[in-house]
C-alpha cells in the first residue's frame, strides 16, 4: 500500500495527474485502502475528532462558517497560499 501512495505522490509532485489517477485506480482494483487523515481538538473537556471527508459532526455547519470567516480574514490581511507542495489536483481559487 505504501508503495502505491509513494508512487502517486511522486507523480503528483510532477503534476502528472493522469498517472496519479492510474495509480489510484490500481489501488482501488487491488483493495489497497489508505487510512484517512484525521485530527482532534479538546474543547471544554470534550474531544472532537475530524476525519478527512467526514460530514457527520454535529457542529459541521458552524465549523464551516467559522472556517469561511477565517479564510476571508486572512485573505483580507494579504495572505496568499503557497500551493507548491500540494499533491492533489485541486481547483483552488486564490
Describe the structure.
- The protein has 94 residues and is of the alpha+beta class.
- The protein has two domains: 1-34; 38-81, no CATH class.
- Helix content is 45%, strand content 13%.
- The protein has three helices and two strands, in the order ααββα.
- It has helices spanning 2-13, 17-29, 60-76; strands spanning 38-43, 46-51.
- A two-stranded antiparallel sheet has the order 1-2.
- The radius of gyration is 17 Å and the shape is flat.
- The model has no long low-confidence stretch (mean pLDDT 84).
- The ordered string of helix (H) and strand (E) elements is HHEEH
| Integer tally of domains | 2
Task: Give the tally of β-strands.
Answer: 2
The class by helix and strand makeup works out as: alpha+beta
Q: How would you sum up the major sheet?
A: 2 strands, antiparallel
Q: Estimate what percentage of residues fall within beta strands.
A: 5-15%
What distinguishing features does this structure have?
two-stranded antiparallel sheet, 2 domains, 94 residues, flat, alpha+beta
